[in-house]
Amino acid sequence: RIVGMGNQYSAPHKTGHSPYTRSGLAPPPILKKSGSDKPSHRINDPMSLELHMADERVRASGLSPAEREWRGKWIADQHLHADEPIMVDAVHRQLNPIRVLYRAPFDWMYKHLLRPTFGTYYGTAVRVTLPKALMAFAVFQTMYYYWKYEAKDWAHLRGIETMPQKEILIRRHEMDTNLLDKGLANPAKYGYISPTFEKRTAILDVGETKRPW
Question: Where is this region: Disordered (predicted)?
């Protein structure tokens, strides 16, 4: 019987009642090898690439005495010294002199305070987060100072210009007029000039204007 998998395919005869295979035979049982932490595969373990090389005696069967000696040295090299691993900054990262200079305080603090106190993981987290938080705080404070004390007005072209929006009050007639004058911005009160113009201490008398208007 020809099935829709090409004209060279013939469906096998059903020899079992399993709905999971074309032949009807149940799939092979799943079994994990004893003493192994590999994932579960079928008993014949078709996913393994070790084959006969899984046995150390088989791997070393064809080695000469000199090769066995070198293999023993290699195995001994896999045991790290008590001081290893050694982190060498010059190997793991390449920094230009400017970055080395501005990173020096926090690098010193990480090496002598943070890592011995909090460990590598939390010490690194503090080392990465704290400088960025301080820089963000400094930028925010600078912007706030510039906005509050260096605002743009009639005497300065620099600074941030603040233009208050006109509030829409639906029940204005029910509110106290004095409170509205104190709480809401009213540019008409200053003749649509900067409020600081009335508080100026210089250029009080400019004389008669020569303008024709």
Answer: 1-42
